[in-house]
């Protein structure tokens, strides 16, 4: 039961992070395009915490982290330019009055932010853990075998096959498979 609870909490935290990054992408690009952002909300349901920032945006945190939204001036009706719902004095701040390329950039910014997050997370995992696998260290050599005759001994680490670096056993195997069916020498660097 505890494992299930931990899994649910991990899922909710992960979704909360993804939603926040996604909505921040919309928020950031909207602000850069000069659109007035009215509300930045993370989660659904009644607000747990709400405040007005120095930038005039209402920031909201709600209890169910399965979504969120960025409310912008003129976003309710993309035909606001025709209906005149946005006061003339604020049209330069309205989503509906921005050029098509800016509206497209604002809409695309959320998924792009998630894509950049994925790249960043994969990079951190790769840098933090590097290449995973078993080091190509020989665990034993049968006497009277070609490997023993070639000088391989228990504890030797294969550093390269035919000049190609081998960090893990999989690299050694792939290099040898590439030579399958050939005759001649196989050069191992120990």
Uncertain runs with pLDDT below 50, 5 residues or more? none
Mean residue pLDDT: 88
**Fraction in helix:** 40-55%
- From the spread of the alpha carbons, the general shape counts as elongated
SS summary, helix count:
5
Describe this structure as you would to a colleague.
There is one protein chain. The protein has 190 residues and is α+β, with helices and mostly antiparallel strands. The protein has two domains: 2-129, no CATH class; 146-189, no CATH class. 42% of the residues lie in helices and 16% in strands. The protein is built from five helices and seven strands. It has helices spanning 2-32, 80-83, 100-129, 146-149, 169-178, and strands at residues 37-44, 49-52, 58-61, 64-72, 160-161, 164-165, 188-189. Strands 2-3-1-4 form a four-stranded mixed β-sheet. A hairpin with a 2-residue loop joins strand 5 and strand 6 (164-165).
